[in-house]
Amino acid sequence: MVTGIGTKWMNDNAVGSILHLQAEQVKTQQQISSGKRILTPADDPVAAAQVIRSLQAQTQNARYVENQASARSSLQFEEATLASINELYQQVRTALLSAGNPSHTDQERNIVAGQLRSFKEQLLGLANATNGVGGYLFSGHSESIQPFSSAAGGVSYNGDQGRRFLQVAASRQIPVADNGAELFERIRAGNGVFVSAPAAGNAGSGWISVGTVADPAALNGHSYRIDFSAAGGAFTYDVVDATAGIQLTTGNAYVAGASINVGGMQVSIDGAPQGGDSFSLAPSTSQSVFTTLDMAIGALAAGGAGGAGNARLGMAMAHSIASVDQAFERSIALRADVGARLAELDSLSSYSASLDGQFSEDLARTRDLDLAAAISELNQGQLALEAAQKSYVKLAQLTIFDFI
Amino acid sequence: MANPILGIGISGISTAQAGLLTAGHNISNVNTPGYSRQEVVQTPNIAQYSGAGYIGRGVNVAAIQRAYDSLLQAQSWHAEASLGHEQAMLDQIGRIDQLLADPAGGLSPAIDAFFRGVQDVAGNPADSAARQGLLAQAQSLASRFRQIDEQFNALRTDVSSRLASAVGLANSITSQIAQLNDRIALASARGSGTQLPNDLLDRRDALVGDLAKQIRTVVVAQDDGSYSIFLGNGQPLVLGTTANRLVLMPGAEDPRQMRMALQNKASTLIFRTDDLAGGLVGGILEFRDRVLDTSQNALGRLANSLAAAVNEQQELGQDRSGAFGGSMFDVGAPQVLGNSGNAGGASLAAVVSDYGALTTSDYRLRYDGAAFTLTRLVDGSSSMFASLPNTVDGVELSLLSGAPAAGDSFLIQPTRRGAGSFAVKLADPNRIAAAAPIRTSASLGNSGNAAISAGAVNAPPPPDPNLSQTVMLTFTSPTTFDVSGTGTGNPTGVTYLSGGSISYNGWTVDISGIPATGDRFIVSSNTGGTGDNRNALALAALQTGKLMSGGSDTLQGAYAELVSAVGNRTQEARVGQAAQSGLLSEVERARSSATGVNLDQEAASLLRYQQAYQAAGKVIAIAGQLFNTILDLG
Q: A132 partner at 20 to 30 Å CA-CA among A255, A384, B116, B246?
């Protein structure tokens, strides 16, 4: 005998199938209305974890973009300030050059001294510049402490030697501020390696050049002295290693303007030194650019009467220019560095933008719904559901009882 | 003897009537769950011998039999139990799945927002608004942790009440089965061996099916018609007319974790989760012991690791007032639960010594009188050691007081309360340690070109008490330096190596380059460093730091792992549920085909028995006419 199917099971099964199809339709509809392929992690556990990671990376990347903007604004402030500082150094240099002119009168020199004083105040103002939100640009970590203050003894630095960084990419922290110690204080005086200077009591009009390094390998950090003596009508000079206390050469014939090489350093002495005059060569030490300016102003005030005075003033100006040039170079280098950082920020910005696009693409692939496919699925589901409903109604209507 | 034709006709009528009754009974029970189609078993009456041989004497109803297939029935019960298990698992784990699914309500955005707050402070360390914002983000992170943990706790409560109602239902079913056993035995004894109380049997089978939905059992039919019902591990639930009661008992270690037990007359037997696979109870127990515990532990571990890492970095930094930063978060401590049956008086403490090494498992510590065995419950791996303290998986166990007796056991939950007790401790935004407590500088008089790094405070906290002391490093030659400062011991002639680390008083700096004799470098306290964001940057770096799972995973990586693990298990449960549901449907189709009522079939039976009835009526009519023929003769 052919076994039938229980009527109850038939009904239960048909209704169960219809309910199942309905649930599928509801899920597809939910996917469409939320635009997401994954409604709960169980829909695709691997992709769900991927979505969390991608979202985190994208949020973090967005944060880096904000940091880049903030770093850019801060660096642009610094860049503008450095540009003004460089311009100012240019003017200081011009003023110092003109002040060295021996034909200047005291009055004219006073005018230059006045100019220099004003430049110093301007420089101080720039050194104490703020970053637009109240913090000082050049005070290191001590953002709320005014970095430079002027007192009787000169300008002093109150900040620290810290440098502030911002995280602008996953593996890049960029400096967004530089400290005033590096920019204004740690400036090597003279030509940056050594300082040549006349002794205080020189009576002649001989003057020593700023000098250059002839042989870097021969530099030993010692101080030297060039002592002049008059023997008959001719001048000779002795070279003394002042650090070691040794006389290196004696009785060298003096030829005005000829270069003298001492311990890897090359200077020239020109003019008319007298017996007993002496010049020193010493390794550079750090000298604040404000001190340099103060010294130049002081030299101008002391005036330049007579040959010796003129020589002294000329040397003071030449050496001040050399020291200012050191600060100038530092400032130019820093500005170039800031410019490089700004350029790096630009390239990081486009990198971050492409990363963001990448993350969005990843998310679209892992999380977002393919709408066309989903709608076609919905239509198919609709068809299946209608078919199931119709066939069930047909089947349920079919019974022998209708014919009894 | 009356007219035999009449007798035959009457037997036909009453048999057809029985057939009609049975078909009617079948039709009216078409929608009764568990009902089996009944059939009339009819046999010819014993024929009478005549000279011509045996002449038939009509028909009688031998029995009313129900269509029954014991194999299909057993398969159906089995499928019911399996489906009950998967369904319960799916229902419960689906709720965790939903909980973790919400992209806005999940934990990951809260962690993102917290670290955004840290970045804000790093960008503007002196800005009160940024600091206040970070505290607000910390608060919302804490409340997100606690919200999710509360959901876990709600699930735990719900699981307990579901277990209780399942146990209540199972007990009511087993006592009904015991009663039915009694009635069926009585009723069966009344008839011959084939005349059975079909409807009672159906009801009992349906009850066994209901029981299977709650808990998996093994059914053994006894000779007297009664069912003996055993649990999977062989413990008897129903024996004849006696039903043993299932009870829920507080766990010996964790009293909030209810355990299933069977109450005999003599004793109470506590089951392990593995004893009870199948049915709603099995599914719920598996969910609780395998999924809920691990998931809540995973969340707790995440909270613990985050809080500990942030706290540590905070304590290495300097707040706005120049003091060392304090802890930002409260960290939940591990729980140690002693077994209520412990004979010894030992009290144990568990402390996390390495947050990076924590797992998501609970542990059981047993003492056998000579050595301790610590078992990691998720994978059953164990380690033995002779004495305490001992550190396993980043948790240090130590004996607080007393001594354990042989056979004592303890349950250790290192991270269970991590998320629940995650709270913000810091109230003052100025106490956020954005700055590093030290600063370094090179003397302006230096003539060498050596440079000093910004320096770092050595982990772990607490920082060295002399950290803030000013220390001077003075070079006595390009290759040696002297150190002076409180706490350093003022060593002289220390060898200098360019780029090498120099560490005193709990800090480390690098000096690189060629120093000149007399060059000096100074490490001092970072007084006034309001613009310093070094520590804030270090805090922000924790987001991408591999802090978890022994340095192999980030915080959010671990969270993604939890989501993925729950998702996987949910998907597994979905597939399992669909498979079992399909299997059950298939078994039910087969069973319905074998034993179910088909209305068309019954309609046909009605017609058949109606015709038989009418025909038997004709036989009686003809018997009457025959009788009249005889009468007419007289």
A: B116
